[in-house]
UniProtKB/TrEMBL annotation:
Name by which UniProt lists this protein: Uncharacterized protein
Alphabetized UniProt keyword annotations: Membrane, Transmembrane, Transmembrane helix
Protein origin, superkingdom: Bacteria
Transmembrane segments: 37-53, 59-76, 81-98, 104-122, 129-147, 184-205
High-level lineage: Bacteria, Bacillati, Actinomycetota, Actinomycetes, Streptosporangiales
Positions of region (Disordered): 1-21
């Protein structure tokens, strides 16, 4: 009886393997990019607001809204609520400006009310990031209040320092996963970084 031998299997085609590997990597790359959606949203937002940048001191309001939003979210102790809190504060600020009223006349009492509520409820007495929300509001609020009332060069530097400082503050929250939702901390951190660098470049350009 004749013994039959099977034909050797064809050698793998390097081109086919490379294509298969490329197809496998593409979904992973797409998924990785999709997970960074807060970053892309911040880049798009920054591109819109920086189109007609002529006075970086106007971004002082960003510092105030961000710090107040973090404080309010800490008081209610619902990290995911930060998106709605910030949207509400932005809408409130826009409304107050249509009344030709200094926003501080409304935002300062609101901040005081939140601090009192947070201390009474105990949220702002918790150790760590919760207890640091009030000092952070005072620091960033002082920059937001002072920057529009100093010479432009100094005002730009103050706002840039405040924005870059808040970007670092966002990074701390992103890493801890506490107080505010991580996607928001990422979005706010990237936005603060881009705006801070833009204001810093504007300050350098105005001095030339």
């Amino acid at each position: 009886m004749r013994k039959t031998t099977s034909a050797p299997a064809p050698a793998p085609n390097p081109t086919d393997e490379a294509e298969a590997g490329g197809h496998a990597r593409f979904p992973r790359l797409a998924a990785a990019l999709a997970r960074r959606w807060p970053t892309w949203l911040a880049v798009a937002f920054a591109a819109v607001v920086l189109v007609d940048l002529d006075d970086g001191r106007g971004f002082a309001a960003v510092l105030l809204i961000a710090a107040l939003g973090y404080l309010a979210t800490a008081v209610i102790d619902r990290p995911g609520a930060i998106w709605g809190v910030i949207a509400g504060l932005v809408a409130l600020l826009a409304l107050v400006r249509t009344w030709d009223v200094d926003p501080w006349l409304l935002l300062a009492p609101l901040a005081l009310l939140l601090v009192v509520a947070g201390l009474v409820r105990g949220q702002l007495r918790r150790p760590g990031l919760f207890a640091l929300q009030t000092p952070a509001l005072l620091a960033f609020g002082a920059i937001a209040l002072g920057a529009p009332h100093v010479p432009p060069g100094l005002g730009h530097l103050l706002v840039a320092a405040g924005l870059l400082g808040h970007a670092a503050w966002d990074a701390v929250h992103w890493r801890s996963g506490r107080v505010v939702a991580r996607p928001f901390a990422e979005w706010c951190g990237v936005l603060d970084l881009l705006l801070g660098v833009a204001v810093l470049l504007l300050a350098a350009a105005t001095r030339l």
